[in-house]
Amino acid sequence: MMRGESLPHPTMPFLGFARLLRCHAFAIAPEQITSFMQAVTLLGPRSMNDILEAALATLAPPPDRRGEFDAHFRNHFYGDAEPSIGGEEDVETRIKDDRGMREEESQAVRQEKGGELSSELEQLSSRDFQRDPDGLGSFRRRLASALPARRSFRTARTRSRGTLDLRRSLSEIVSADGDIPLPQLRRRQTVPRKLLLLIDVSGSMKLHTADYLKLAHAVVQGADRAEVFTFGTRLTRITSALRIRDCGQALARAAALVDDWDGGTRMGPTLLAFLSVPRFSAFARGAAVVILSDALERGDHSDLETAMRRFRARAFRLSLATPLASDPRFRPATAALRAILPVLDDLIDGSSLRSLTDFILSLARPAPAAAAIWQRVS
């Protein structure tokens, strides 16, 4: 959608009304605002009732908030008194863990007014994922063997290329009445590293959320040690929901858990909230961390930079997959991206399932750091 300052002056009241609704936690996407102004243009309008009907048809307020919607309409267009609505906006990042179904509060964060595509405004809504074959069967089968591995502290018996198991060797000597049998050897086991997916479900990522959730389901089904969280204005762990084998049921369960679909963005504060919970922070230790987000952080990006540096200190590999990178003209030119680029191992195209699955299957292979790649591109 076009920026407010680039639109004709007569459109300002309608854009201002949409912004007023977003400031009061109505879930309104940018394309709905565009449709609203187009509908007003088509209707004339001949009366204020035409504008109200256009607003109801395009902005689609929930039935239980219709009275509040009408009150805001009268306040904005007629100058009526400001409606009295509930309590103050919750400005704390909430954490929902699907183990135990309870919410915890983390450190309070400053609320800032967001833009049309990416904002900090909390907008709570639900999503409905229809059953659809994901086509990710091959990816699920290959995932476990393709993930990067590490040496475990646990050992297993082996016939060669191991270290002497002195205790078992002495036991064998005693059992053989002093004869010296073949030495018993043990070798440290190799296990796949953890895979952590952090999925941005804010309004600016609305077109990609369904594909990302299908990918997350395939990851949880294919890897033994995978964790999945969503973030927007809140942080929600959905791993348990995605362990349901049927994709449709799993996504429906995940959709019910997450409250902040298609809302605003508090990327830095929500990632810091993740790191502030010791059990969650442990998921990132030694893991391959993949963040699926456009990284359009509004306002001060210091929280985001701090969070990414802490992830870098814990993770085996830190990757950011952004759908914006599908455009050949894309460059990490925003202040937030420039700040976090030095700590990223990868900054890749996250616009399609194909590019994401190919990347995840290549995590075990070394690659140049993101800063080195994008400096050459620039």
From TrEMBL:
Organism in which the protein naturally occurs: Mesorhizobium captivum
| InterPro entries, per the entry | UCP010256, Uncharacterised_CoxE, vWFA_dom_sf
Instruction: List the SUPFAM superfamilies.
Output: vWA-like (SSF53300)
Give the residue range of the signal peptide. none
Give me the ranges of the annotated region Disordered: 98-135
State the protein's name.
VWA domain-containing protein
Which Pfam families did the record assign?
Answer: VWA_CoxE
Which residue stretches does the UniProt record annotate as biased composition, category Low complexity? 116-126
Q: Which domain of life is it from?
A: Bacteria
Q: Cite the record's Basic and acidic residues compositional bias ranges.
A: 98-115
